[in-house]
Amino acid sequence: MNKNFGTHRLVVGAHYGLTDWMAQRVTALLMTLFSLALVAQLLFGGKLGYERWSGIFSAQWMKVLAFVTIVSMLYHTWVGMRDVWMDYVKPVGVKLALQVFTIAWLVGCAGWAVQVLWRL
Question: Rounded CA gap, 61 and 114, in Å?
Fold first, then answer.
């Protein structure tokens, strides 16, 4: 007979482990694919100027890849910064404030990045 003693409450956020590790690797892979696609476009294209740069991002597949990369980079950054705040900042109020600031900053960066991408 199995008996449970006490409560089994999770009081910290350290249970993310493997999921966050995998998310970091997958998002890093997506960012690498984007970087390789961009470098290939730059190396095998013509003279680099606004027209060329705009032409690179005019293709729908490149816009989608850029958007997926932006989202990947934001999630990758969030996981990393959240782990830093959880591991090295001890006062709960300061930790929460830093996490809220990080989220606000990343949302602002996302808006700016999408705006820049679709202006080209």
Answer: 15
Burial 71-85 (b: 16+ CB within 10 A, else e): ebbbbbebbebbeeb
- Whether residue 37 contacts residue 65, with contact meaning beta carbons closer than 8 Å, is answered with yes
Question: Could you tell me which CATH class the domain 17-119 is placed in?
Answer: mainly alpha
Q: How many CB atoms lie within 10 A of CB 70?
A: 19
Domain positions in the chain are 17-119
80-117 pLDDT per residue, tens: 999 999 999 999 999 999 999 999 999 999 999 888 87
The residue among 7, 20, 9 whose CA lies nearest residue 84 is: 20
Q: Residue 57 has what pLDDT? A: 84
Kindly report whether the global pTM for this prediction surpasses the value 0.85. Answer: no
